[in-house]
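Figure 2 data, in text form.
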Amino acid sequence: MVAAIAGALALAFSTTVDAEGLKPLSIEGGSGAHHFQVEIAVSQAERAKGLMFRRSLAPDRGMLFDFGEEQSVSMWMRNTYISLDMLFAGADGVIH
């Protein structure tokens, strides 16, 4: 994932899903566009499991947690063996 992106970033998300269930995600920042393929965690069970037990994750892959509405959330790293970067976006798509 992107190690560090400073400033306000615009999040561009497509509704297209590929054969693996991945959706394209683009993050626009001062250094240009960064493109990813992400899994979408929508249900409580999907969000609770997250990326647990994964031994690897390609640099252009990730997971988007969709809570349906803007809210404060707590995240945990239980049984997560890979290094992760977390970005929090508001309903407007801007990363805060």
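Caption note: The chain has a mean pLDDT of 83.
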